[in-house]
Amino acid sequence: MQTNNIVLASSSPYRRQLLQKLGLEFSWAAPAIDESPRPGESPTKLVLRLAEQKAKALSKDYPNHLIIGSDQIATLDNQIIGKPHTHGAAVSQLEAFNNREITFFTSACIYNSRTGRAQMRIDSYKVKFRKLTRIQIESYLLKEQPYDCAGSFKSEGLGICLFERMEGKDPNTLVGLPLIELTQMLIEEGIDPLCN
Length: 196
Description:
Elements: E1 6-9, H1 13-20, E2 27-29, H2 43-57, E3 66-76, E4 79-81, H3 87-97, E5 101-112, E6 117-129, H4 134-144, E7 163-167, H5 171-175, H6 179-188
Parallel strand pairs: 1-2, 1-3
Antiparallel strand pairs: 3-4, 3-5, 5-6, 6-7
Helix pairs in contact: 3-4
């Protein structure tokens, strides 16, 4: 398959920036799906389902493509944490994370719309927050305004100062796309980023 037949099923500028690291040509489009969790759905099942739905949602418009879908959620004590959207909600999230560990689950799906084959992977990443004061939280939020980010921070920016430690195999997972897993799936579809 041609590398210019890759489509990222996302409107996220963060995911586009991550995929650009692989040096492949791609286009992008926003899929229209319902991202609501189903009753009793685990965090891992939710992110895998949504990644696949996002990729397949674009298959009619892109019938001969590799379509990449991805989703991410943060969890604290196995409870899903959403995007804060407002300053007040972001303050509440970061206060709840104070001196605690949260886990991010980030999924990726490559759907070959020509063959109907879907590959799915998931990666997790843990972040331990430092003990933060309200002044530090407020200052951080006013500087970066990460209101569209699950967990109320941007690890690729000043958000790194919120952490005591990070654990995981792929730091890109924390930003929103597990590139190590995605690379392997692309290779299985005949596209090696190192040889293109």
